[in-house]
Design goal:
The protein has 112 residues and is an all-alpha fold. Helices cover 54% and strands 0% of the residues.
């Protein structure tokens, strides 16, 4: 039989165990009391910024298309025009197309 588990008080090991338990009990009660006290939880309000990618159209509003000379002036009227007037109309159409290309490039600048 193991002497440590002998419940008789005549055994010196059991007496020492009982004495140490009595001496440690106030300390144990003090530690348990310290752990039992409840502190109020601290509540914090934090503002967090979250960046979420959003798809947006890269193309702005398209500029109005230009009308070609062949669609705006009938063939019979075109043939009746003098050569210098035709040259001026063609130069004006070329300038309009160039400006249209620049406006279209500006509208599509977000797609790069």
């Amino acid at each position: 039989m193991i002497p440590f588990f002998n419940p008789g008080l005549a055994d010196p090991v059991w007496r020492w165990f009982a004495a140490s338990a009595v001496m440690l009990s106030p300390l144990a009660l003090l530690l348990l009391a310290a752990c039992a006290s409840k502190e109020q939880p601290v509540i914090e309000t934090r503002t967090v910024e979250v960046k979420v990618p959003v798809s947006v159209p890269c193309m702005a509003e398209r500029p109005a298309t230009i009308t070609a000379l062949i669609d705006s002036i009938p063939r019979a009227d075109w043939d009746a025009l003098p050569t210098d007037v035709r040259a001026n109309l063609l130069a004006a159409q070329a300038l309009e197309r160039k400006l249209y290309g620049e406006k279209l490039a500006d509208a599509a600048a977000g797609c790069r």
